[in-house]
């Protein structure tokens, strides 16, 4: 850089920062007046909200995170907003959060969009697509790629406002008592695998079986199930699956970074003072980041425990099993978007975003991951 250029640049930066300071002082003053006029805070009003969850009471990471968010909101609002968190079944059955928040009986629910697939076929696209985008990419789609707008559009008729609020990261493929050496081994295999992953598994010849979390261990032990997926090493270890299964397969092709959601009753959210609305949004956003960090930290620790303490064989799915399941995924999604116009709209948006960012992801994250040791 010539000296002349360098002087010009320094001069520009000096002017720009002086203008920025003047601008911010001015807008801050204007904003204070504006804010005071609009917020109209009544410090005597305490908003008491209920948050139901689809998780068992005090469930590690997700359940404990919701309680942390309630604390943050209370602190940030100076006690003007109190959220009481309930585990699944404590106030309403675990999977009734959608209806309860939609009707306004409950103000908010923490769970995952794919639990609502029975009411809204396109909902799973806002959680995870088999072989689809990972946690980082899903976050990018929702926060910066227009996904949030679309999600709100889809939920609006139910008077629901969705927010991104956590992610497990790539899950594990699951616990198996039969070895999976080829696609043939999937045929007739009885596995607990819900959601779109389950449909793909069925398409590939497997038998998905619906079993609630509390029954999986016994069913695996008794051979009612040949396999199960759950989450990742931390939660899987706590469930004790290593005591009743021989193989632990990776990766979790069916849930490569499921987004967890907070839904609020939209009308009730709109009735909150503006500052409390921002406090709820901020709490959800912080929880979104905390859960991802906590999952990675704990999964790393517990994977090592599984390796050190158990005789389980930790192994990758063979390539041809992965490509067979990928083909089945294309078929299942193809069928879904053919029969449901809203799923088509959501999937096309999802897919277009993925196509747009993958060339960048391929030479950045993916390339670097391959070089990491
Ligand atoms: Ca899972």
Walk me through what this model shows.
There is one protein chain. The chain is of the alpha/beta class and 373 residues long. It has 2 domains: 47-167 and 258-295, Bacterial extracellular solute-binding protein, family 7 (D-Maltodextrin-Binding Protein, domain 2, 3-Layer(aba) Sandwich), CATH 3.40.190.170; 174-256 and 312-367, Periplasmic binding protein-like II (D-Maltodextrin-Binding Protein, domain 2), CATH 3.40.190.10. Helix content is 52%, strand content 13%. It is built from 13 helices and 11 strands. The chain has helices spanning 3-39, 62-76, 97-103, 135-144, 147-155, 195-203, 216-222, 233-239, 266-271, 274-309, 319-339, 341-363, 365-371, and strands at 47-53, 81-86, 108-111, 160-167, 174-176, 190-192, 207-208, 227-228, 247-250, 259-265, 313-316. It has a 6-stranded mixed beta sheet with strand order 7-6-8-5-9-11. Strands 2-1-3-10-4 form a 5-stranded mixed beta sheet. α2 (62-76) runs antiparallel to α10 (274-309) and α11 (319-339) packs antiparallel against α12 (341-363). 41% of the residues are buried. It binds calcium ion. Residues 171, 229-231, 255 line the site of calcium ion (CA).
Name some characteristics of this structure.
13 helices; 2 domains; binds calcium ion; alpha/beta; D-Maltodextrin-Binding Protein, domain 2
């Amino acid at each position: 850089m010539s000296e002349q250029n360098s002087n010009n640049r320094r001069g520009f930066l000096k002017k720009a920062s002086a203008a920025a300071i003047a601008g911010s002082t001015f807008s801050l003053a204007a904003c204070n007046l504006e804010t005071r006029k609009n917020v109209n805070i009544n410090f005597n009003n305490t908003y008491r909200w209920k948050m139901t969850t689809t998780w068992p009471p005090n469930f590690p990471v997700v359940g404990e995170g919701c309680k942390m968010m309630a604390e943050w909101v209370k602190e940030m609002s100076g006690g003007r907003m109190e959220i009481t968190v309930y585990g699944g079944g404590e106030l309403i059955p675990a999977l009734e959060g959608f209806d309860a928040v939609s009707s306004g009986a409950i103000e908010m629910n923490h769970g995952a969009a794919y639990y609502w697939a029975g009411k809204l076929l396109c909902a799973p696209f806002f959680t995870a697509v088999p072989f689809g985008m990972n946690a980082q990419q899903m976050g990018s789609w929702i926060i910066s790629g227009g996904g949030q707008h679309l999600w709100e559009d889809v939920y609006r008729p139910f008077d629901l406002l969705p927010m991104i609020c956590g992610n497990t990261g790539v899950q594990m493929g699951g616990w198996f008592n039969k070895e999976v050496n080829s696609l043939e081994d999937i045929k007739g295999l009885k596995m607990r695998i819900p959601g779109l992953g389950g449909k793909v598994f069925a398409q590939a010849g497997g038998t998905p079986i619906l079993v609630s979390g509390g029954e999986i261990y016994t069913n695996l032990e008794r051979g009612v199930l040949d396999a199960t997926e759950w989450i990742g090493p931390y939660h899987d270890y706590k469930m004790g699956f290593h005591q009743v299964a021989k193989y632990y397969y990776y990766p979790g092709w069916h849930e490569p970074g499921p987004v967890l959601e907070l839904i609020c009753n939209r009308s009730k959210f709109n009735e909150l003072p503006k500052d409390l609305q921002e406090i709820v949004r901020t709490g959800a956003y912080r929880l979104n980041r905390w859960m991802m960090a906590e999952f990675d930290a704990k999964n790393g620790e517990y994977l090592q425990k599984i390796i050190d303490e158990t005789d389980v064989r930790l192994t990758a799915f063979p390539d041809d099993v992965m490509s067979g399941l990928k083909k089945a995924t294309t078929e299942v999604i193809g069928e879904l978007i053919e029969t449901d116009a809203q799923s088509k709209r959501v999937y096309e948006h999802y897919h277009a975003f993925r196509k747009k960012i993958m060339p960048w992801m391929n030479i950045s994250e993916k390339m670097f991951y391959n070089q990491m040791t």
